[in-house]
Amino acid sequence: MDIQAVMDQIGQKAKAASAQLAFAPSDAKQKALESAADAVWENRASIIAANQKDMDYGRDKGLTDAMLDRLMLDVPRIQGIVDSLRTVAAQDDPIGAVLSEWDRPSGLHIKRVRTPLGVIGVIYESRPNVTADAGALCLKAGNAVILRGGSESFYSSGAIHQCLVDGLKAAGLPEDAIQLVPTRDRAAVGEMLTMTDYIDVIVPRGGKGLVARVQSDARVPVFAHLEGICHIYIDKAADIEKARRVILNAKMRRTGICGSAECLLIDRAFFKANGAPFVQDLLDAGVEVRGDDAVATIQGVTPAGPSDWGCEYLDMIIAAKLVDGVDGAIAHIGQYGSNHTDCIMTEDDATADRFFQQVDSAILMRNASTQFADGGEFGMGAEIGIATGKMHARGPVGAEQLTSFKYIVVGDGTVRS
User: Which run of H or of E encompasses 189?
Assistant: First the structure.
């Protein structure tokens, strides 16, 4: 396969499709997504069969249990894909929305109107549901998209992509609006990163290695999604039972996603008064807890090393240490955090306000599991990823975040003096 020629052709088709999508009717986009949802459900058996090929490939490749969990599809997860497609379909069309408008003394009337970005390239690993999420969100926002899934999810992504294409056909929209790179060859990624004539923005979704490569090599603008080094700070005014419930869910619900808690920061005063019952909960659940000198006094805790602070485990492992109040937690997160999601457990409003003001992460939570760091849970239907940068998009990247805007200026023979 001539990778450069293939990618050039894909880029040309995407650019042409984006020009049509920019003014596609809202009802056509909705019909495309609803029809795609129907196709996914009707073809669930073949999608699961394709996924089994990917699971076998992943095991042979030596993927961890956490990575295999991210890769696996079953009927409930396919139902989740269907639900996400329908939710995105039902959302208001962001394109054409008037963000603001005003009159000038010159007689001009000015409007700022939401528009598509154009062509979006999405590079992702393992999770085949990203194929549906990314395709749906880009389409809803009037963008064409070029999807490059991971080698592990090659067959699953192909099966889901075909359902999206079926939806486009049913709605009379260009089939090239959602394209999937038809090769596992990594050279295709390198091509995407330099396709400035065709791609307007790249969204990487995957591990640190993938995102670092994209940020290093891309000549196209990037929405960065780095690591999910999520902290939970247990304040001296925390409710113990709330903390136990939230911490266990934040670590255990799914250990292999970016919203999984990776580090507990325990206020020294809380520890002195109450101990750390949530640490025992984690140990009892089979989690390896790596603690500082104080936390390591708890039977079953493994002493932490320097590399355990600022580590995204994506596994049944969590770090834990004592800090001196909320300021100690803020300082630790500032040094070791990834600007993804951080949580405070406290009943004290002033302490929570201080945490919210001084921690510079895309998502901040109070008394809630970090596993809620998800576009679907935020009411976006789905997400392409959690952007940890500060330019354009931050936090869950949904349809609205995949838009830009233009100014519409209307006069009446108006001239400038």
Answer: helix 187-192
Looking only at the bridges linking them, the beta strands covering 302-303 and 178-180 are: unpaired
- Residue carrying the six token digits 């306000």: 353
CA distance 344 to 355: 7
Contact yes or no for 31/173 (Cβ under 8 A):
no
Task: Report which DSSP code applies to 222.
Answer: B
Residue with tokens 């949580």: 343
How confident is the model over 143-181, as pLDDT tens digits?
999 999 989 999 999 999 999 999 999 999 999 999 999
Domains of the chain: 3-223+397-410 (3.40.605.10), 230-372 (3.40.309.10)
In degrees and rounded to multiples of 5, residue 123 shows phi and psi of: -115, 120
CA dihedral over 43, 49, 53, 54, signed as positive or negative:
positive
Given a contact cutoff of 8 angstroms between Cβ atoms, the answer to whether 292 and 305 are in contact is no
CA 72: distance to chain centroid? 18
Residue 381 has pLDDT above 80, yes or no: no
Give me the DSSP letters along 33-62.
HHHHHHHHHHTHHHHHHHHHHHHHHHHHHT
Report the Cα–Cα distance between both ends of the chain, in Å, rounded: 60
pLDDT at 3: 96
CA distance 72 to 74: 7
Phi, psi of 111 (to 5 degrees): -125, 145
- 3-state class (DSSP) for residue 366: strand
Pick the closest to residue 318 from 302, 331, 333 (CA basis).
302
